[in-house]
Structures are given as C-alpha cells and as structure tokens.
Amino acid sequence: MDRKPVSKRMIAVFAAMAVWGVVPTSLSFAGLQEDQILVLYNADDTSEIGLDIANYYKTFHPNVHLQPLTSGDPNNPLSTNEQVSAEYYLNTIRPAVLNALQAAGPSQIQCIVTTKGLPLRIKVDDSVPPQGAQWVQYSSLESELTRIDLIDSEITMGDQTWFPAGSGHDSENQYFGAYWDYFSWPPERICRDNEPFTSASNDGMRLATRLDGYTFADVQGIIDRSQNVFVDPSAPQYVVVDDDPDGVFNLMAELTVNLGDQAYSDSSHQVITVDIQAPSRSVIGYVSHGTNDGNGLAGGDNGDPSTGYIPEQLGNPQSGLLLADGAVFMTYESFNAWTFDPWVLQPRGEGGYYIPEDDQQGLLAQWLAIGGTAGIGHVFEPEPGGYDGTIANEDIVFDMLLDGYTWAEAAWRSMQQVSFVNTVIGDPLMVWRIAGDMNGDRVLDSQDIDLLYDNLGGSGVPSAPIYDLDGDGDADNVDVAYLVHTILGTEFGDFNLDRKTNEIDLARVALFYNAAGGWFAGDASGDGFIDLTDLAILAGYYGFDGTADAVPEPATLGLLAIGGLVLLIRRRK
Ligand SMILES: [Ca+2]
Ligand SMILES: [Ca+2]
Ligand SMILES: [Ca+2]
Ligand SMILES: [Ca+2]
Q1: Closest Cα partner for 500 from 508, 488, 491?
Q2: What are phi and psi for residue 527, nearest 5 degrees?
Q3: Across-strand partners of 39?
Q4: Among 35, 57, 65, 270, which is least packed, fewest CB within 10 Å?
C-alpha cells in the first residue's frame, strides 16, 4: 500500500483560527456529565497503570464510575496486549463491560473511558466477515465500545455496508455532524447544527475515549491539561494546518495562519514550527499530513515533516510549537494511533510487514509527550473503500470545541463511522472555556464581572485558574481590569457594556443609588452596593468611548464569542 495516507475522501480544510469574531451561541455546553462516564481499567494488569490512571482521573471528576475489568481466571488474566482478536473482544471484554453498564443503570452511562493496559486494537481474524471494500478488519476498542450494545458478532464488526449514509446501520455514526446532499451536483456537503450528545437521541450509541500515553506521567499530563482550558477572546490562538503541496492529498488550496499582523501561508513541504512562536502557548490545534507531506524520501529533507517530526520539530523547545493547554492533534497518517508503546514499530498496510524505524509516521503518543492534550488517530489504515468520512473531519471538531461542547462530543461528532479504526484520546469532559466567562454560559456580560469580584482572593493568594485572567496565579483587581479592559474592551463605569461611559450609565447609578446591586446596577467598585464610590469611578471615566477604536470588535454583550475561524473551507477533490 502506498505510504500516502488515509483517504481519498473529500478533504476538510481549514486554516488557523484567530479568536475574534464568531457570534456566540448560548447553549448548555456541558452535554456530558461526570456520572454518565464509566472508566474501565484492567484489574489483571500487574503494573496497575490502568488503576492508577482511573484513580487519578477520578480526583478531578469524583462522580465518574470506575470499573475494574478482569477475566475472572487467575491463570489466564485479561490481556494487556494492544491487539486482541474479535473473538476475544466478543467473548471476554464485551460481556464484562455490558455487565458494568447494566450495573450502573441501563441508560446511565453515555460515555466509556478506557485506560492504558486495556487492549487498543481489535482484529477480525476469521474469513467471516469477508474482507473487502465493505468491511474493515480492524477496529479500535473505543470505536467498538460506542456500539457495544448492538454490534455483537464478527459479521457485524467492521461492517461498512451502510454506505451511502442514512441507512440506519449499526456501524453508521448516528451522531455524525454532516451529511451529503446527493440531489445537488456535484453533491454538497452540509454540516448539521451542533447539538449535545445523548444516547437516547442517537439510537443508543455511546461515546468513548481513551486515556493513554507512553507513560503514566504522560497520561497525568493530559488529564492535568484538560481541566482548565481557556481560549482568550483578546489573545488569538491558532490551529496550525500544515498542508502538502502535492495536489491530490492537499488539505487545502492555501493555508493562512494569522499571527498578529503577520499572515502565513504554507503549503510547502516545510514543517511549520518556528513561525508560530508568538504569542506564547498559543497553538491549540495541529492538523497536517505528517510524514505523508514532503518529497517522499525516508527521513525527509528540506525541513519537511519527517520521521521523528513531533518530538524533534514540533516539540523542539527552541523552535517548535508552543502548545496551549487543550491542544488537539489530528494528522492524515494511517497508523498514528497504532501503538502507545515506544518500543513498537508500525506496520505498513495489510501485508503486515513493518515500516522501518527511520520511516515511521508520527504518533499521537508523541504529541501527548510534548505537551499535547488530546487527539484523534487511527489504529490501522482507515481506507476501507475510499469514500468520504473515513477519518475525522477537523472542521467539525474545532467548531464543536469552539461552541463549548465536550471533547468526546466534538470528536465523535466529526466521524461518520463506528466499529472502525479511529480512536479518540483524551479526557472526554475537556471543554474549551472562554476566558472571562465565569458562569460558563458562553456569553460575556456583567454577571461575569460580578462573579469575578465575588471570588477575588487578593494579590499573591493562589486562585482557581478561571479567576486568574492575567495568569500570575492570583485573583485580584488586576484580573478585574483585564476582564474589563482587555476582554470586554471597555472601561469602569460602563454598566450596560456598550463600550461607552455616558448618561445611560449615569442613569443606572441614579436608579439604584444607595441600593444593593451588581455591575449592571452601577456597582463599579465590586462591593455589591451602589454609592458615591461608584459615582466617582464613573465620573473618572465619563465620556470614554471604546467604539472609536480601530481594534477588532469588542467582547460585549451578545457579540462576543470565542474564537473565529478565519477561514473554514471545505474543498472537493
Ligand atoms: Ca458568562
Ligand atoms: Ca491574576
Ligand atoms: Ca455604557
Ligand atoms: Ca460599589
């Protein structure tokens, strides 16, 4: 099989995003709750790494359910091999997980989390089902678990005969966020509106992610970095898209990375690293062809993504990407989730011979090791039939994250198939929050200012990350000023948040004078009372007009959201 990657599908394209401009949607973004999550670990694994990961995860999410899995036979412990047979899955793993799901309550668990020490790949070894364009021989454990309730035999595992979409087949992802309008010519790809996941509204499907990495420390890192992910409307963050210039497999016709005043365009063979240095820790996503980019020479040259490009180029402390907490990885590399064991080589194609060490593709495990937080990858070649949707669609992933959906929802919304080779690594509950949005409603308004005032600990006193907007560790008046000035783009005394301080704001103070109230009512000082102090503050800034600035649209009222996709293009091949 050609070492070109994964798919001839119509390919998603998009560019870097800066953080201004998308209109916010008010929605209940916490679509997935802790007590809807079942965390599985291999209780027969003498290393106990799965148990350690499950326990560590539970310290952040105390209401998740932990579930040991065991073979029940001391002489034949539950496999810790990354690959197991379909028979093993069906006879040993599946019944144990089904029992656990039942014990938690028939409809309680919406998402299953696996941990290192449990199998990763499932392989159908028998001649049934027929291996051909309509079946795939491999699936990830996680993809299989999304359909654990229905897919119960080798003939139904990996069955892709649902195509074209809409057949309601068990291995068609009911939650997929796009569809094709075949009545137009050429057929048009249409994205559905984003919506929260529930099993009930998706034909009983469940979500699934995996907590894995080279080491326990790597997994701890991704859990840590998932907990407080903020995108700051006033400080652009980027999804870096590194395209391939060689036509057929291009991610995009043109890549534009907005970097302050600098615009970058890269569809060369050069790996993008050093150009995306500032502002600090600003890269929140990475999409590329990985080693499939470039001139095809083993080991690469001319700086193109080559073997080892993740640790050596992207992760280079001097010249690499500065990753934000929450950074997501998706590459068009067939075997990028083949293993989480640093000593294992990748295979090349169905024949089973292995890519030599100096020609290995990038691995999701490497991304996590350099400070990445999550990713979607493939445990085997995801090119079963060449039709669209074999791998994750990055435009859907990032759109969902920017709208405040959980990682598990964003990831699975982007994929058309289940019982398939794709897997999702990371904390399913990771949410990209908006800096300054204290109440989590994804709107920045006076309630957020009030909440920040209510939670000021003072200079030098350690603070929860959500209140520490300037990142110096505490929550004090400097953080209030950051919210008012930098994020909301206005001044103290602007009580209706229209970026002006004038007679309207004065009228608020007059109306609520000598009464209790928040910012909305004229409390500029944050003491919960409207009095002379507030009037004096208003007077100090009276006449301020922030709308005259040439700066980007401010973060006021209904206008602000998190980040804008500057360019979001889908291009047909
Ligand atoms: Ca808010
Ligand atoms: Ca602070
Ligand atoms: Ca005002
Ligand atoms: Ca006051």
Answers
A1: 491
A2: -95, 5
A3: 66, 113
A4: 35
Q: Under DSSP, is residue 330 helix (H, G, I), strand (E, B) or coil?
A: strand
Length of the chain: 573
Dihedral angle over CA of 288, 293, 297, 299, nearest 10: -20
What is the 471 CA–ligand 3 centroid distance (Å)? 28
**Residue 424's pLDDT band (boundaries 50, 70, 90)?**
very high
Q: How far is the CA of 237 from the centre of ligand 2 (A)?
A: 20
C-alpha to C-alpha distance for 171 and 176, rounded to whole angstroms: 11
Kindly identify the ligand whose nearest atom is closest to the C-alpha of 455: 2
- For residue 200, count other CB atoms closer than 10 A to its CB: 10
pLDDT (tens digit, 9 = 90+) per residue, 307-342? 888 998 888 887 778 888 999 999 888 899 999 998
Cα(62) to centroid(ligand 2), Å: 27
Burial of 235 (0-12, 13-18, 19+ CB in 10 A): middle
pLDDT reading at 141 higher than 60 = yes
In angstroms, rounded to a whole number, what is the distance separating the alpha carbons of residues 155 and 164?
19
Distance 475 CA to ligand 2 centre (A): 4
The crossing angle, in degrees rounded to 10, of helices 532-541 and 503-512 is 180
Distance from Cα 478 to the centre of ligand 4, integer Å: 17
Mean predicted confidence (pLDDT) in 357-378: 91
Expressed in angstroms and rounded, the spacing between residue 556 Cα and the centre of ligand 3 is 11
pLDDT score of 132 more than 80: no
Which ligand sits closest to the CA of 557? 1
Q: What distance in angstroms lies between residue 476's CA and the mean position of ligand 2's atoms?
A: 6
First CA to last CA across the chain, in angstroms? 21
Distance, in Å, from the CA atom of 331 to the CA atom of 286, rounded to the nearest integer, reads 8
**Domains parsed from the chain with CATH numbers:** 11-434+565-571 (no CATH), 446-559 (1.10.1330.10)
Contact 340, 141 (CB under 8 A): no
Q: Give the number of whichever ligand sits closest to the CA of residue 544.
A: 3
Is the distance from CB of 325 to CB of 228 less than 8 angstroms?
yes
Task: Name residue, tokens 């995108």.
Answer: 231
| Distance in Å, CA 468 to ligand 1 centroid | 15
439 CA from centroid of ligand 2 (Å) = 18
User: How many angstroms separate the alpha carbon of residue 508 from the centre of ligand 3?
Assistant: 10
State how far the Cα of 362 lies from the Cα of 294, in Å rounded to an integer. 14
- At residue 569's C-alpha, the angle toward residues 565 and 573, to 5°, is 155
Q: Report H helices in 296-385.
A: 309, 364-369
pTM: 0.83
Look at residue 272 in the predicted model and tell me its pLDDT: 57
Rounded to an integer, what distance in angstroms lies between the CA atom of residue 147 and that of residue 54?
22
Distances from the Cα of 133 to the Cα of 34, 136, 170, 361, 504, angstroms: 39, 7, 17, 24, 67
Q: In angstroms, rounded to a whole number, what is the distance separating the alpha carbons of residues 93 and 511?
A: 66
